[in-house]
Amino acid sequence: MRVVVADDSLLTRAGVAYLLKQSGYTVAAEVDDAGTLLAAVRAEEPDLVVVDIRMPPTHTDEGLVAAERIRADHPRVGVLVLSQYVEPAYAMRLLRDHPERVGYLLKERVFDQAILVDALRRLADGETVIDPTIVSRLLGRQRAKDPLAALTAREREVLALLAEGLSNKAIAARLTITERTVEAHVAQIFGKLGLLDDPSSHRRVLAVLAFIRSGG
């Protein structure tokens, strides 16, 4: 698997590249701005891109804009976006139009080799990856009318893992329950929230997050 790494911090860029090489990935290019990233994707045709949201010159959302451009122009390329801060709005913006092969993680997590490799593997498989901290922030927001009030404690656990992009099999392993039990919980969750179940995991993530963000 070929990966392009984009971050204006030399330390972060080199650190991520090192972990990727140690895990058997080929680092096709290391770049420090969004324009060079787009050029590298065109030239190298990578399988995956790892990019920081805040890139030169303004350090606002240049990386996010580049990620959106890559997903639109190169739909087979998976994109893992990194952020130093918990910014749910950016996650929603990225997922809205291109939910497949998109991930959003806090930057601190990618220095855990297991987390980085797992996220990239899932993106390569066409899945969605969302940082659990962002999921918790969305699930924990206080509202006068809580759309999740009808859910049991176990259903809330399953919903949080669904929102991270985990498959039913992965949820079963995480919670040490059977996959059939997970399927039953998923059916109950979507029924209680008035959402249609869909076998496409990225669509389930979008539906869950959109519902939570709208406040019901």
TrEMBL record:
Pfam families: GerE, Response_reg. One of its GO terms (molecular function) is DNA binding. Coiled coil: none annotated. Keywords: DNA-binding, Phosphoprotein, Transcription, Transcription regulation. Residues 144-215 form the HTH luxR-type domain. InterPro entries: CheY-like_superfamily, NreC/VraR/RcsB-like_REC, Sig_transdc_resp-reg_C-effctor, Sig_transdc_resp-reg_receiver, Tscrpt_reg_LuxR_C, WalR-like, WH-like_DNA-bd_sf. The keyword ATP-binding does not apply. CDD domains: LuxR_C_like, REC_NarL-like. Residues 2-122 form the Response regulatory domain. The keyword Transcription regulation applies. The modification 4-aspartylphosphate is found at residue 52. GO terms for biological process: phosphorelay signal transduction system; regulation of DNA-templated transcription. This is DNA-binding response regulator. It comes from Acrocarpospora macrocephala.
